Each structure stands twice: as structure tokens, then as C-alpha cells.
Amino acid sequence: MRWVWISIAAFLVLAASACRGTSPALPPATGVAAAPSRDASSAAVTGNAITFVPLGPTRMFDFLPSSGKVNAYAVDPNDRKTIYVASGRGTGLETYSSAGIFRTTDGGASWSTADAGLVDPSGAISSVVNALWIDPAKPSVLLAASEYDGIFRTTDAGVSWSSVYRTAAATQFASYGGALYAAAAKGILVSTDGGAHWSVSLAGTPQRWPVAFGAVSGSGGSAFYAGMTDGTIFAFANGTWTYRGMLPFTSDTHTDGSTPAVHQIAVDPLRPSLVYASSNDGTWDQDLHASIDGGVTWNTVFKNRYENLGLGTQAIAFSVVHPHRVYLGTDGGFYYFEADGAPKAEVSPAANLSVIDIRDVWPVANGADDACWVASDQGLTYESRCSLHDGKVFNDDVVTKTVASGLARRFAISPDGRFLVTSLQDFESHETFDGGKTWHVKDALYEDGFNELQPGNPHNCYAYDEANGLSVSTNGCVKYRFPGYYSGIYPSRLMTTPMAFNPTHPRQLYLMAGPIVGFATAKFGAFTTSDDGRSFTRLAWPFARPGMIVVDATNSKHMLVGDLKGGASSLSVTTDGGTTWTASSGVPPTAFWYSATISPTRPNVALASSVDADNNVFVLRSTDGGRTFERVATVVNAPLLRIRTRVDRPELERLSPPAFVYSPAREIRFNQDAAKGVPDVALTTLRGAFLSTDLGNTWTRLDDRLIAHSFWGIRWRDGYLYLGSDGQGVVVSARPVQR
To answer: From CA 425, how far away is CA 406, in angstroms rounded?
Structure first.
């Protein structure tokens, strides 16, 4: 999450004017050498025959050019210009990314992917990588801990990888006592041959398995701690793991996703009984706790959104130069304090970094001060003087600034394919006017928003996010005004498609309102504007918390709305423009909003998608325009590990209900340009993108040849299929899928 109060507006303007990125050109708007037009009788283009081209943005600009998220790194101790980075979920409630592994041999001037052999049992790249480890004695040997497929190993510096331990989530490595350890769902694993073979040192259970390590060994003594998913702390001594204690936990934090799970552990190298640990508890996830007795008892040092330092403790590490100094990274800044185990430590600003959403810190000695490698949602940066705060001067080097790993969410594209505006995670929206060749930051459009272009007049651009509400541009998306800011109408980032135009009167826009985080007092319900957002009318529609709307392109009075009330979703249909609504039958209540789509050639056919209690993304179909649905397909099992995939019912009725629990089912959308026959339909999920050519009965995976396997927005243009991905920005099919 971007921390919006950081004062960088002036620099943003300069950066935006200078910003230029590179990415493959968009396919021609008219298409060449296309697949044959598909009607009900034509041959299907199977999903595994479709290839996608990443469009970007490849270099995002906020206040400095940066990559997308990095949460793991390794540097060759014999060649500091050889660096590896990876992007996954880390050890805590972090931004999800599926960008895989990158490698540079020139200190970051250029990067290449290093994913060969890093594959799951189906052959798709296991691209959610939480941690890297490099063998200091033999730097050509590296290990990768993946979220879904266990541990991988390379012996040729990342040229090829092989699986060495299949398990579910693996999150971290640690060296201690001449052995190598890994935190994994099976438990604490140990290897004595550089990660080639593993055995279980302490077995895990579904209720308790290791996530984080803290280890020191030196003149001050030795200690090795492990933090578990249930908040317990174990210590290793004399070949045995022993339970030590448990971190404090407050269950009612008003933030779904708060769990007892340990996030990170830092151990004082001069006093190994002094331990700091962050947890996934806290209003803004995470809190920081301290123990002076080796993890037996704990007190909370920083809690929630503390002082003015940012959103929770996200990274902690002891200095290797300054005795008892702890570096602290938040979503908003970089600090340090002198560690003594006491609560409410006095915090000082550390180096002024050009990255703001810090996920991990690795100090190394650099004369009189530490140098720091810092991983963040804006990339990997190197700071040569960690403790020196230079005000507004940035002295760090974002070494991943040329890495293409942007997290693209929802987007809109012009009919000619040249203009595209996309919301991103942890960056303001970006746009291109030349089909993806160059990208520009769009100031003040917040992360994780929704974008639309007015049908018939793509110069009218609409952005909708939880910080500004509705933002409108009538001059080709150059300058926006923010009517939503004054109207109190905001979306939740967890909605599916909260905006839709009236096809008969395209100046009329419907908006579903009600935020998740709550930047202001919000209105809940359905609204409409017919004057480009200058004024709004609240609709007397019978919904508590609508989060999805779809309008029939052939009949503007035919609409579907998805609602969420009391922790249960529903669908409703109208055929008279909203005067009367009928609750759709056959719709199982789920914890998330449904996404839905109406066929452009057979408006009696509608498809809807959500996720059940077992994390199965499923599809419902209606053949009577949305009055009744039946389940026709289970597409993929898509668990978001290490977080509750449910929304607490009591919280739903509050102004600031649970935050950051994204549904594993993202969006479903028919090819609206299909003129006859059976239109193709695409579906995006946490675990892949899929295509159906038979109205949802069967689904073919589309992303086998991509690195990213987590997707968001969907758009069709002249037969080309566009997807927003977690890790490769917006991608587009290399040729038309269906005309």
C-alpha cells in the first residue's frame, strides 16, 4: 500500500514529465494474420496456443523510477555486481506478487529472468518466490523458497533450477551451526549439504508451522529462534527445538487478515537473549514486540499505526556496526532505535530512501556505518549510509529500476489500442498514449483503482479509487477533477466491477460505493451521474453494499448487481432499469463479491464467478437473463496461503470494514466485440487466467507461457485479449483470440 501523506508532489510532477519506459509495441489496431472469426461453428483457439506479450509499465514512476515489489535478494560475495531478486509474499501479510526471479551481472543496469526449471508439477513457472539464499562458499549455488511449490535449487547461478523439496509454502532460510534451515509448511527443514537434500528438524501442523527465523552466532553468543503461524516462538539448542513463548495477539483489530503469525525476527548479536519480533496483528498489520529473556515473555514496543512513522512494522534488522541498534522499515519510512526491550522506544529517522513500502532490510558493515540492502514494494535499493538522514536528499540506488515486475490491476483501453490507463499496486496509475512503448505516471490517481473510458467518447476518462472517489477527465485523460472527493462516494479495492455505463445514454455512469479502508466518511449504495460526474444521484436500489454492476450492451434496462451483506454475497437482476429487482436464485452466498458478465450475442446468457469456502473458483450460468443460475464449472483451486480468506460478518456493517482480503476470483468478461455465435469469455484468478469457448462449461488455462500467474482486469479489443497481472504489468495476446 502506498502511504499517501509523504510529501513528494512537486517531485512527482517533474518525474512525470520526464518519465519514459520501454515495452513491446501493441499489436496493430486492425490486426494482421489473425485467427479466423469464430461463430458457433468455427474452430476454437485453445488456451495453450495463445501467447501473451507484456506491455508494461516496466518502469513505474512515483517519485523515482522503480520496479514493482521485491521481497528477496541475494548477492554474490565474490562479485557484487551479480545480484538476484525475487518477488512473492515474503513472510507476512505482504503484497502478493508472481514475478519470479531476476538476475543481473552488471549491478542492476540490466536484468534477465532466471526461471528455467522453476516450475510446478504442471510445468508452469512457480513465480511466487518468498526468499533466496546464496552459498557463500560456492556462489553458483542458490536456493529459492516458493509460496506453493516448496524449495528449488540451482548449481549454475540461476541458469536452471530443480525442485529439491516439494511442499506448500516455504518462506525463509537461515544458516546456523554449520547447517542450513528452511521454514516451510512441513515444518523446520534442515540440510547439511547446501540445500541438495532436506529432512524435518521440527514437524509442522496445519495449525502451527514456521514462517520466520532469527539467528546470530558471534562474540556475543549464539541463538536461533523460529516464529510460527500461531504466534509461538521456538528456540534451538543442543540439537533440539524448544517452545519458548508466544507473541501478544489482539483478535479484534478491525482488519481482516490480522493473525497471530510471526512476521520477522531480529536477534541482538551482542545480547542474543534480546529478541524483537513483528507479528501480523495490529490495525494496520504489523505490531512490534520485544523479549529480554530469549522469547519467553514479550511486551509490545510499537502498536498499530504508531506515531507518524507509517503503517506498522514491516521490516526489522539489527545493525552490524552500531551496538544494539535496530533498523525499522514501515509502509511510509525508514527509522532506527536503540534496543533495550522497553516499550515505546525513541525512534530516529534513518536514511531517506526513495522507496517507501519497506519489506525487508539486510545491513552490512561499511566502515563507520551500516550499508543496507532494502527490499520494498518499489524494488530493491542499496543505501551506503543507513543511519544518516539527509532530509529530502535520496542517496540510495534503486538497483532494480529496470526490472519489469509491475503489479497491474484494473485498466481501460481506447478503441484504437493506443491509449491505455491502468491502476497499479503501490504506485499511482500509469498511462500510455502509444500502445505501451512509453508510459507516464498519472499524478494523484491512487493505487488499486478502477478505470473506464466513456463509450463513443474515449476522451472522457473515469478513475475510481478509495482515496479520491471518482476522478473525471474530459480532455483525453490529461487532467482530472475529483468530484467523488466532495460527494463522499468511494469504492472498495475489493470490488470486482463497480462502474458501468448506460449503452443507450453513455454519459450516464453507475457507481457502486462503499470503501474498505475508509479515507473519509463514506456513503454506501448505488449512485449514478449523467453529467460527467458533476452531480450524483443516489439510487433507491435495495442493496446494502453493492460491489459489482454489469449492464446488458443490447438492453440498458437489463442489469445485474452483486451485493454483500452480513458476510454473504448475492446477485440480483432488473429488466426495467432498476425500478424493480429480483434476487437471483441458485447463487450460493460467498464471502466475496461476485463478478458477472452478460453475453453480447445472447443476452439471456449470463455468467458469474466467485470462490467457495474451499477456495475453489467456480462459475455459475444463467440462461434466463440472471433470474436463475446453476453451477457449471469449478475452474481452479486458488488458496491465498497464510491469511484468512473470509470476511468477518460484524465488520461488514462498519464504515471501515476488513481490509486487504482480495478474492481469489477476480473478474469474468465476455468478448463484447463478438457479433454472432458463441462469444469467448475470459476469467482471471489468483492462480491463473482461463478461457471458455462454450459459455462456461469448460475452461482452458491461458497463462502457461507467462511468468505471472495471478491476474486482475480483463479487456477485449478487436479480438485481442488484455489481462492485468501481478508481476508482468498488462499483457496482451500476440494475435486475436476471437473476432
So the answer is: 8
Residue 550 to residue 615: CA distance in whole angstroms: 24
pLDDT band at 34 (very low <50, low <70, confident <90, very high): very low
Cα(664)–Cα(592) distance, rounded to whole angstroms? 9
Report DSSP letters for 329-368, one per residue: EEBS-EEEEE-SS-SS--EEE----S--BEEEEEEEEETT
Query: In terms of Cα–Cα distance, which of 103, 16, 104, 94 is closest to 60?
Result: 16
Question: In 612-697, where do the E strands start and end?
Answer: 616-622, 630-637, 665-670, 681-685, 688-692
Average pLDDT (589-605) is 95
Provide the β-strand partners of residue 621.
Answer: 607, 630
pLDDT at 63: 73
> Peptide bond before 363: cis, by omega within 30 degrees of 0?
no
- The pLDDT of residue 306 is 52
pLDDT of residue 221: 94
Q: Print burial letters for 296-329: b (CB count within 10 Å at least 16), e (below 16).
A: eebebbbbbbbeebbbbbbbbbbbbbbebbbbbb
Rounded to two decimals, the pTM is 0.91
pLDDT of residue 656: 38
Separation of alpha carbons 69 and 130, rounded Å: 11
Is residue 84 within 8 Å of 158, Cβ to Cβ?
A: yes
Here the cell at position 459 is: 476522451
Closest by CA to 185, choosing from 200, 199, 205, is 205
Task: Report the CATH superfamily, name and number, of domain 66-398.
Answer: YVTN repeat-like/Quinoprotein amine dehydrogenase (2.130.10.10)
CA distance 15 to 444: 13
Q: How far apart are CA 424 and CA 435, in angstroms?
A: 17
pLDDT at 343: 87
Which residues are CB-contacts of 167 (< 8 A; sequence separation ≥ 6)?
Answer: 149, 150, 151, 184, 185, 186
Ranges of each domain in the chain: 66-398, 544-658
Say how far apart CA 503 and CA 408 lie, in whole Å.
27
